[in-house]
Design goal:
Elements (H helix, E strand, L loop, with lengths): L2 H30 L4 H12 L2 H55 L1 E3 L9 E3 H30 L1 H6 L10 H40 L4 H13 L3 H11 L12 H8 L26 H13 L1
Antiparallel strand pairs: 1-2
Helix pairs in contact: 1-3, 3-6, 4-6, 4-8, 6-7
């Protein structure tokens, strides 16, 4: 409801009260004090009894003015908030558009290949990047299993195949962090630009709606919605690396991603091991919830 409508309602109510009081006063005077002059004198005395109404209606007038000023201030606040949100939205969608351009401009040249047209771009590159990262992670795990196998005679006797040796969750998490650090060095020309820009989109939204987590969450949800599964996967691993930390070496970006449930819809194929979910303890991974529900029904 706008200010003008509220003001009309308040003044309408005040006018109705005034008219009722005036009508009562008029008919009382006409019935009991009309006629001889002595009745008119009594009318004057009677009228003095209603002097308090002047103060009453003056008070009504003051209240009406105060209410009008208050409603105008509130309307001004709403107009200011709407104007601010419009400006933020305009900048936000421009930033999203630029992020799409960064994805389209990303590229990868196969190692040792000089053939023309062997460059991979855009979303195809992102899909390949996830596959490369997963492959390197498997190799890292095997190397760690091999080291344990060679150093422990008990493991040699217990496990015929090296890749069957179990590794602790913290070892797996340490392995993926190391693998991504090495992976990032070779792909920094794409990943560095992309994730710096993504971080700044988050920062812009969160600072623009400071104290309004519900509104900030709507915009961050839009970021998630327009990202591919491969982008979400790479964002997941970048967030756990040193490259997502701020100058004070704080995991601010990872905390934002976790607080806003950013990876709730991530594809299971992008999570190479269930041990990685511990990096984002607040996130409700839907694929994990579905698997848990199915396991519960099976039991």
């Amino acid at each position: 409801m706008d200010v003008s409508k509220k003001v009309k309602e308040y003044f309408g109510s005040a006018l109705a009260v005034y008219l009722i009081m005036f009508a009562l006063y008029y008919f009382t005077v006409k019935k009991y004090f009309s006629g001889p002059s002595e009745n008119m004198a009594k009318c004057g005395v009677f009228g003095d009894m209603f002097g308090g109404f002047n103060a009453l209606f003056s008070g009504f007038g003051f209240i009406a003015v105060a209410v009008t000023i208050y409603l105008q201030i509130e309307q001004h606040k709403r107009d200011k908030e709407e104007s601010h949100r419009y400006q933020v939205e305009n900048t936000f969608f421009n930033m999203l558009s630029t992020l799409r351009e960064i994805v389209r401009d990303s590229y990868y040249e196969r190692e040792g290949s000089d053939a023309a047209g062997d460059e991979i771009n855009g979303p195809v590159y992102l899909r390949l990047a996830i596959k490369i990262l997963k492959g390197k992670y498997k190799i890292e795990l095997y190397n760690r299993q091999k080291e344990l196998h060679e150093a422990d005679k008990t493991l040699k006797a217990q496990y015929q195949f090296v890749d069957k040796i179990p590794l602790a969750p913290e070892v797996k998490r340490d392995a993926i962090v190391k693998v991504y650090e090495d992976f990032y060095i070779k792909h920094e020309h794409n990943l560095g630009h992309y994730f710096r820009y993504l971080y700044n989109i988050f920062k812009y939204i969160i600072t623009s709606f400071e104290g309004r987590r519900d509104i900030a969450g709507q915009y961050i949800g839009l970021i998630q919605a327009q990202m591919s599964n491969d982008e979400l996967g790479l964002t997941f691993y970048n967030a756990i690396s040193k490259h997502s930390k701020n100058l004070q070496q704080q995991d601010v970006f990872r905390q934002w991603l976790d607080d806003f449930d950013f990876f709730e819809n991530i594809d299971e194929r992008c999570i190479f091991d269930g041990a990685f979910l511990a990096f984002f303890p607040k996130t409700h991974f839907k694929y994990k919830l579905r698997k848990d529900a199915e396991a519960g029904e099976a039991v």
